[in-house]
UniProtKB/TrEMBL annotation:
One of its GO terms (molecular function) is protein heterodimerization activity. It holds the Pfam family CBFD_NFYB_HMF. Keywords: Nucleus. GO terms for cellular component: CHRAC; epsilon DNA polymerase complex. Gene3D superfamilies: Histone, subunit A. This is DNA polymerase epsilon subunit 3. Residues 9-70 form the Transcription factor CBF/NF-Y/archaeal histone domain. It comes from the Eukaryota. It is found in: Nucleus. GO terms for biological process: DNA damage response; heterochromatin formation; leading strand elongation.
C-alpha cells in the first residue's frame, strides 16, 4: 500500500491555504501547527474513507459514492457536516452541468470547415 506514513499526508500547501482562509489575516501559523494539522486532516480523510467503505460494503457495493461518504459522516458522528456538504455538492453539480451545457452549445454553433478552408 504505502511505503512511508508521510506519503499519506495531504500537501502542506493545500492545508496551509485552507488554514489561512479560516484564520483572520493577522494570525500567523507556526510550522509545528501546520505539520500537526496536515497530519490531522490526513487521518480524518482516512477515517472517513474507512467509514464510507464500510457503508458501501454493507450495501454490497464496490464503488464508493457520495451516499457512502454521507453515511460515513453520520457513522463517525460528523452529522453537522452533512447538510453543508449536500449544498456544496448541489452547487458543484450545477456548475458542472452549466459547463457541459455551454460546451454543447458552443459545439452546435460552430460551422464545420469545408475542404480547402484554413484556420487563421
Amino acid at each position: 500500500m504505502v511505503e512511508r506514513i508521510e506519503d499519506l499526508n495531504l500537501p502542506n500547501s493545500v492545508v496551509t491555504r485552507l488554514m489561512k482562509e479560516a484564520l483572520p489575516c493577522d494570525v500567523k501559523i507556526a510550522s509545528e501547527s501546520r505539520t500537526a494539522l496536515t497530519r490531522a486532516t490526513s487521518v480524518f480523510v482516512l477515517y472517513l474513507t474507512s467509514a464510507a467503505t464500510a457503508a458501501a460494503e454493507k450495501r454490497k457495493q464496490k464503488v464508493l459514492t457520495v451516499d457512502h461518504v454521507l453515511a460515513g459522516l453520520e457513522e463517525i458522528e460528523f452529522d453537522s457536516f452533512i447538510e453543508p456538504l449536500k449544498k456544496d455538492l448541489e452547487t458543484y453539480r450545477k456548475t458542472m452541468k452549466n459547463k457541459k451545457d455551454k460546451k454543447g452549445d458552443k459545439a452546435e454553433h460552430e460551422e464545420p470547415m469545408e475542404e480547402g478552408d484554413e484556420e487563421d
